[in-house]
Amino acid sequence: MPAVVVKDLKFSWRGGSNLLDIPRFDLDTGDRVFLHGPSGSGKSTLLNLLTGMLLPQQGSIHISGTDIASLSGARRDQYRADKIGFIFQTLNLLPYLSLTDNVAMACRFSETKEAYAVSQHGSVGKAAAYFLERLGLAEPLQRNAKVTELSVGQQQRVAVARALIGSPSLIIADEPTSALDKQAREQFVAILNELVSDLNTTLIMVSHDEALASSFKRSVPLTQLNEVTRLESKVGQSYVG
Ligand SMILES: Nc1ncnc2c1ncn2[C@@H]1O[C@H](COP(=O)(O)OP(=O)(O)OP(=O)(O)O)[C@@H](O)[C@H]1O
């Protein structure tokens, strides 16, 4: 079953013209996609549509076979918690909790993730420890530290562990590397790809940094998916020509 199927999607912000007009965008299970495009082209808006935080005015989005707009608000929230792992630019970690508790938090909101973590690792705590270890945060002292005691790069890795625990079908990463230097960015993308590939999970990562594209199976410019910007660039080209 495809992980993501977008069909005839149209979206505009209130009172504005069409921002997104995407006839088709499909991802297979295990695809790792780098989505890029100019600032303001609608990348974050598209991610919010894929996760059901926003609903399209036209068209449909199926995630693991479910039309997310057809779910009630409460079921959509639960579906998102069960099926999707997020890595945000702002991390959204809870500063007063330990690393392990921050990672385990994803299972507090999803029995599906909790059950999977327990079936694979014996307990949620062991699953959290496994991912923290894979991400180079193995030291027990580090695991029990508060997240505020870590560097930004280390906090970023905690956010990755929290996104991966419970093996969601889709991982969404929105500008996760913007606070990191070049070397840390490359290391981050390498370990993220490795872990996502081990879990056979689908990954969509958005970044301005096109140098990262070569680390992904697929690199998709949003302008290529989006009829609105495709038409704009054709008009631009005809003026130039
Ligand atoms: N909540 C909102 N209400 C109204 N307009 C919005 C809202 N959020 C975004 N927009 C508009 O939608 C357009 C696309 O924004 P979006 O954040 O999706 O772009 P982006 O490609 O992610 O940009 P960036 O790379 O700068 O993060 C912008 O013109 C923005 O002003």
UniProtKB/TrEMBL annotation:
Organism superkingdom: Bacteria
Residues annotated as domain ABC transporter: 4-240
An example molecular function term from Gene Ontology annotations: transmembrane transporter activity
Alphabetical list of Gene3D superfamilies matching this protein: P-loop containing nucleotide triphosphate hydrolases (3.40.50.300)
CC annotations in GO: plasma membrane
InterPro entries: AAA+_ATPase, ABC_transporter-like_ATP-bd, ABC_transporter-like_CS, ABC_transpr_LolD-like, P-loop_NTPase
Xref: SMART domains: AAA
Alphabetical keyword list: ATP-binding, Nucleotide-binding
Name the UniProt record assigns to this protein: ATP-binding cassette domain-containing protein
